User: Which sequence fits this backbone?
């Protein structure tokens, strides 16, 4: 497992360089199954997006071997008001069910981290959306996902 972690860290070395350059504070770097899991806090949406740009440059199919949960934090809050405002879940009319519209760069682990408090809860979102998802690593911008309570 340690060898696999080191191999993945080497593969994504430019991502770690971007993390450092953008001042992203890493909170977790480990293997989850055969995927590298990176979790961290960025000071701005711009810093977060730069890290995501590097991830996509290293591997266009990054979903196959990487789970990245980069959150925008500020002053001890989980996210800045500007970052949180467009990503607030919407209640479906009358049902009380929260929904979320997938944006470019989103992953279920990222959405779970923002809306459920832990990236590890991504399978809860996947299970709630089995009617439209066949793989937790294959979500598309524009999809509307149900967010479990």
Assistant:
């Amino acid at each position: 497992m340690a060898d696999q972690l080191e191999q993945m860290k080497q593969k994504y070395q430019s991502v770690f360089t971007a993390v450092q350059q953008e001042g992203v504070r890493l909170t977790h770097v480990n293997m989850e199954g055969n995927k590298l899991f990176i979790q961290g806090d960025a000071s701005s949406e711009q810093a977060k997006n730069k890290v995501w740009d590097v991830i996509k440059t290293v591997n266009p199919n990054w979903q196959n071997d990487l789970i990245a949960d980069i959150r925008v934090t500020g002053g001890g809050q989980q996210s800045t008001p500007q970052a949180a405002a467009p990503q607030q879940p919407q209640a479906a009319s009358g049902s009380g069910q929260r929904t979320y519209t997938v944006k470019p760069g989103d992953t279920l682990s990222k959405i779970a981290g923002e809306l459920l408090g832990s990236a590890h809860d991504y399978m809860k979102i996947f299970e709630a959306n089995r009617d439209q998802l066949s793989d937790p690593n294959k979500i598309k911008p524009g999809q509307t996902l149900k967010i479990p309570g």
